[in-house]
Each structure stands twice: as C-alpha cells, then as structure tokens.
Amino acid sequence: MTLPVLLFASYADAFGARTVAVPVTMPCTVADVVLAMRSIPGGEKLPAKPLVAVNQAYAKPDAPVHAGDEVALIPPVAGG
Amino acid sequence: MTLPVLLFASYADAFGARTVAVPVTMPCTVADVVLAMRSIPGGEKLPAKPLVAVNQAYAKPDAPVHAGDEVALIPPVAGG
Amino acid sequence: MTSQTGAQPLVAITHDPIEIAALLAAVSHASVGAISTFLGTVREVNDDRPVTGIDYEGYEPMAAREMQGIADELVTEWPGLRIAIVHRLGTLQVGDVSVAIACAHARRAPSADAMRRAIESLKVRVPIWKREHYVDGEWTWVDPTNAAAPMKRRP
Amino acid sequence: MTSQTGAQPLVAITHDPIEIAALLAAVSHASVGAISTFLGTVREVNDDRPVTGIDYEGYEPMAAREMQGIADELVTEWPGLRIAIVHRLGTLQVGDVSVAIACAHARRAPSADAMRRAIESLKVRVPIWKREHYVDGEWTWVDPTNAAAPMKRRP
To answer: Minimal Cα–Cα distance from D107 to chain C, Å?
Structure first.
C-alpha cells in the first residue's frame, strides 16, 4: 500500500510537494517509512535521522505505523 | 544648627511628620545624624541601623553631611 | 489540567497580528501578583545578513498540541500558573511580533521562570518553521541545528 | 549611557495607570528580536490576609534616580539592551499594575536575564514603600526584611 506523508518547509521543497505517497508493507515502523522515502526523488536530501510525527506527536524510529495514521516528517523546527 | 531630615512611610508615622529638624554640630556624619534623631520623640522606634540617603543617594554611616545636603531616612523598601 | 479560573486559557496559532492585551487579559486574575511576558519580534539582521521579512509556516494542529502540552506541563510544575501562548504564522515584516507568551502567578519567580521555560521549550519542540528573505533576494529556511551552514537557495 | 536609538528611553514614576503599550513602544526597534516584560500587580491576598488595596509612596526624585541607575547598569552589562521601567504610586486596587519593566534585545537570553535582574534590583534599592489595607480595617507598611513580624497598626 502507499502511505501519505505530510511535508513542510525545506522538506516540502526537497520533494517538491506538500504530501508524498510512500510505498510501504504493513505492519511497519517509522524507520521503515523513512527508509522507503529515501528511494523517492528528493529523499536523498533528507538528513540521517529526520524527526517524524505520527498522529501529531513525535514518534521514535521503532514506533509502529498503522494504516490511517497521520504521518509527517518534521524539519528542524525554528519557531519563536 | 538644625538639619532637616526627610521621612517616609513607617518612619514618617513614627515621628508623626514628613520632615524633622535634627540638632547637629557641623561637620558631622550620617551616623551623627541618626544618633541625634534617637533623642527626638519617635526616634526610639528606629531600627539599629536605618538606611540613610544624602542628596538622593545611599550613604554609609561614616559619610560626611554638609549644611544644605538633602538628607533622608529610608525605611525598608517594598516597591514592585 | 490547566483549570484557569476567570478568563479562558489562551493557547493558539493565528494568522493575524497578535494582540498583547488579549494575552494579558487571559492570564490576569485577582490572585496574580506578577505577569512575565515574552515577545519574539522579526529583526532586521540575522547572522549579519539584512532581513526583509520572514514567512512562518507551521504544522498547525500539531503545533497547537505541542503548545498546549508545554502549557500543561508548566502548570503541573507551578500550580496556580496562568499561561497564554500565541504564535503567528504567515508573512511577517521587520518589527512584527511572531510569538507572545504571558505567565502569571502569585509570585514573580514562578512567573519569570515559567515564561523562560515556555519560550525555550517552544523553540525546540513546536513544529513551526521560518523562511528568511534577504535584501539580495536570497532566502533560507532557518535551521537552528545547523546555524553555521544554513541551506541557502535562490528562488 | 543608555543611548537608545529611536524612541526615548522610558524610566519614570507615575501616579496614573501604566500603559503597557507605551513601554513596548519605547523599547521596540528594528534591531530587536526579543522583548521580555514584567508586570507587578496588586493581588487579593498577601501572607494569607485578604487585601483591599495598597497605597504606594515613594521618595520620588531618588526613586527615579535609582531606577535610571538600574537601567544604566543593565545597558552596560548587555550592550544594545533597550529598557523601560515605570513604577506607579498612589492608591491601587486589586488587579492594578504597580510596576512595569520591558527589556528588549536582539536575543532572548539577554532580554529575559535583564528583565529578571531589573525587578530584583528594583525591589532591593528603589525607595518606594507600600501600605497594605486589609478587609478587617487594619493596615501595614510592608517590610520585606521582616516578613515574619510585620509592623501592624490600627488606623
């Protein structure tokens, strides 16, 4: 299946899109999603360990991802 | 001569006045002024080491006091 | 968790100019003796480059959740704290307020400490990004983790 | 010493309500990235006694000098700091702002540190006093050096 992943700021620029459809095999983890994204054009610009949010909360690499989860890649934050 | 000394807050209440005329012999020091004030009614309510300002700046006990100086007793401050 | 009496707690993302008075009203209360506030403003120079403006972008629902999380954690640490946090998104000019935080408490130390903690926490965990525009036409997504070599592009 | 460009430095004693916007305007500048402010407000309870109001009294010319001295010292310690300090005197009600401090700087740490130092310094050296009135009709000149046994009198 493909999992939609939300992109922002410099990551949206890298992929040229606000959302990218990532091919994954369920069940999978956050690390699996990031690994799959590296094969998508623009994915080569990702850092070694990009931050990921699942359902609007930061998630560790070994956290599970389920179909229907809202997954987002979080560039280095710069609010304030 | 007598030196006018400004009083505020609890010290003004203690002496029942906003200014008290203190008998001193020139030249004198801040400590001399405080000592002379202890003989004035209300002076018994002063603490052991009241703060004193000369010409609107804090002055130590051995600081000189001249005729014409603006002398004030400063109760414990409580601004803010 | 926050259970502020009186005015409603104010933790929000906005695309409009931030009204400081609204934050002060949100945290004011008869029990309050001290209100510490922080305003972040767009300045004309960053890393020695003249800045003409900043675009703020956010992952809005998550940013609001993280800001509420910060507020809840601070109220847990300092019971009685009343806190407001508002972050603005969109295109801001030099001098505009990008973020405002108000922390009210009976005593000044918790008020000031909570304010400081709130802005420090916001800067490390709230998913908001800023793109600085420079007078030479270049722009950069600011990366605080890599300040020495920011990603720079031409539009 | 302070040499703020733009708006005039604002260090003052007032008998009128304090306008926060005036302090923010005084310290705002294109070079500023952070503004930390402190507001002291009259609260309804002190040392477990319900308070109905406070009379603030000051040795006004010396208070203004000490406040300016604090401002000058902080600007010396943090070059580029822009600071405003206003203290209100007279009879204040619960919720009224008694003192307002605004510290603006390019960066947030000096802004926040200076704000904290300003209020701590003000409380130990600026010759201002407050008489608290309680619901039972008693009143006290507040003595922070003797908090355990304040001088209490009946009017």
So the answer is: 9
d(CA C141, CA D74): 34
Of D24, D32, D95, the CB nearest to C30: D95
Cα separation, D130 vs D143, in Å, equals 9
Alpha helix stretches (DSSP H) within chain B = 9-15, 30-37
What pLDDT is stored for residue C5 in this prediction?
52
Question: Is A52 a residue whose pLDDT tops 90?
Answer: yes
Q: Is the pLDDT of residue C67 over 50?
A: yes
Q: Is the ipTM of this complex over 0.90?
A: yes
Token digits of residue A7: 């992109």
Contact D115 C36 (CB under 8 A): yes
Burial of C119 (0-12, 13-18, 19+ CB in 10 A): buried
Query: How would DSSP label each residue in B15-26?
Result: HTSSEEEEE--S
Structural contact between residues C57 and C131, judged by C-beta atoms closer than 8 angstroms: yes
pLDDT reported for residue D151: 46
Beta bridge partners of C141: C131
pLDDT in tens, D120-139: 999 999 999 999 999 989 99
The CA distances from residue C90 to A59, C21, C46, in Å, are 27, 21, 19
Q: Which contiguous run of DSSP H or E holds residue C131? A: strand C128-134
Q: What is the pTM of this model?
A: 0.93
**Under 8 Å between Cβ of D57 and B8:** yes
A21 residue type, one letter: A
Name the more confident of C9 and B20. B20
